[in-house]
Each structure stands twice: as C-alpha cells, then as structure tokens.
Write a structure and sequence with these properties.
By secondary structure, this protein is of the alpha/beta class. It has six helices and five strands; from the N terminus they run E-H-E-H-H-E-H-E-H-E-H. Helix 1 packs across helix 6.
Amino acid sequence: MKIVSLLGSPRTAGNSSTIARHVLKTAETLGAEASSFELNRLTYRGCQGCYACKTKLDRCILNDGLTEVLAAVQDADVVLLASPVYYGEISSQLKGFMDRTFSYLVPDYRTNPQPSRLSPKKLIFVLTQGHPDEALFGDIFPRYEGFLKWMGFSDVRLIRACGIGPGNVDAVPEQVLRLAEDTARQLVA
C-alpha cells in the first residue's frame, strides 16, 4: 500500500501539514509506504492549456517540480491533499497542482464513461482554517469532492479543523489527531 501526501501550506510545520504528517505516521505503522511533497518548496507552473496531454502524450508535457508529484500520485493507492484555507479557498500551491491534474484525463474525457487515466484511489482531504465557524468556507470540500470522484478517487474523506490558525499554530486539537489516525486505519488497513 502506497500513500502520498501533498502539503499545500507554505508553512512547513503548519496545522494542515501537522495533521497530514500524523496520518502518514499512522499509515507507516500499519505497513504503508509513505511519501510526502511540500508543494511550496517546488518550482512549477500551472496548467498551460496546451492539450499536449490529450494529443501527444498520456501525461503532462511540462517537466518541472510537479513531474515527480504527478507520477507519485498516479502510482499511489491513497492520496492525501492538505491545505489551510486562504481567502476562502485552498492554497495557491495546492490549486496549482489541482489544475495540473487535467493531464490525468483521457482525450475524450467529456464523453468517456471512464474519463480518468488514474486507477481507482482513496483520498484524504485535510483542511484547516483560523475561523471557528464551520459554516464559513464549508463549500470548499463539496466543490472538490465531486471533481475528485469524477477523476477516479473512489473513497474521499475529509479531515477538517476549524478555529486553528497562525494565532495558535501547531495546536491541533486531540480529537482532530484521533480522526487522522482513524482515517488512516480505515483507508490503509
């Protein structure tokens, strides 16, 4: 079992990264092979809309910091996407990756009943936000969930922590860490 984590926070030890690392640690104790990428440390461009992944190649034509990440996601059984909420959205680092997943779609993705080149995978989506109101920014995950299922992620789980941000950095509540452990056990076992 392979699990790959994409950390969308620009802060190496931020809350979303702390939760993601807790999932990976638990997965490793269960025998999973885990790897992690800090997107902020990579140099990459967003999707160029060139359609080379539909007309010339079966992957993204760009050769940059996301090349290895895209390949690792394709090879993984479980993918973990982690991001703080910035201005009501996932971080730009994670959004840049999400845009590049266009390369996973087959050329006739609009009409093909199997639009994705990805084999079925499980996904954990970690979101943290400073504001304690769970209704605020509650629309982020549902927007991505449908898209991710369409892309081939058959089991999509959310770990969300509200009310933790720069003012209380790395003070992830114990119940969130327990949820991270439980989620890892359910998806890796």
